[in-house]
Amino acid sequence: MNTRRKVLAGLGVAAFGWAAWHSGSGRQQPAAPLAGVGGTRFPNVPLLTHEGREVRFYDDLVRGKVVAINMMYAQCTNSCPATTANLRLVQEMLGERAGRDVHLYSLTLQPELDSPERLREYVERHHIGPGWQFLTGARADIEQLRRALGFYDVDPVVDFNDLSHTGMLRIGNDALDRWTMAPSQTDAAQILSTINHVDSKVVHTAYRPSEAPAEQLAQA
């Protein structure tokens, strides 16, 4: 199991590096996720959902669950809308598993601006269905989570840029302490496959190719 976890962590770092290269910035040298990203080593900080509900990050959102987590902010007009649209495809592919077996979370990078009300407007504007929660909180708490999840860069200049943290998706199964990463704008079916890889209850994808969303089929 330890070997498997190390392999998955390595895949995550490799994926992060691929995303940095693909973005065209030769300066980006993303840091590896912190050791012990799963379990109780997650900061159990208080957060607010886009519905205004108070939650604790680990106890309420991650403990014992299969999760997919990205970072975004409501005013982003560059990569965030494309990422959101792609993750909507993933949510559609998950079907009834979304919010029941697999939990989708988006953390804001601009908590001072992104109140629950503003995040709710974002959810409505992008027609996001149940099973996907958008989260905000105190700046210090968001920063703790950003680093614990591996969304940071060793170069402080790059790390200061919010856009440098929006390109990856942290995927994990807390019950098994099995974690990896995937580029958030890669093929939606590939993201689903990565989610299924960490979910021990799933032995095949949750949809047949003929049932894939029209947008995904058009890209095939």
Automatic annotation (TrEMBL):
TM stretches of this protein: none
UniProt entry tagged with the keyword Disulfide bond: yes
Pfam families for the chain: SCO1-SenC
Keywords of this entry: Copper, Disulfide bond, Metal-binding
UniProt xrefs under InterPro entries: SCO1/SenC (IPR003782), Thioredoxin-like_sf (IPR036249)
GO molecular function: metal ion binding
Covalent S-S links between cysteines: 76-80
Residues annotated to bind Cu cation: 76, 80
PANTHER family: AT19154P (PTHR12151:SF5), ELECTRON TRANSPORT PROTIN SCO1/SENC FAMILY MEMBER (PTHR12151)
Family: Belongs to the SCO1/2 family.
Protein's UniProt name: SCO family protein
Top-level taxonomy: Bacteria, Pseudomonadati, Pseudomonadota, Gammaproteobacteria, Pseudomonadales
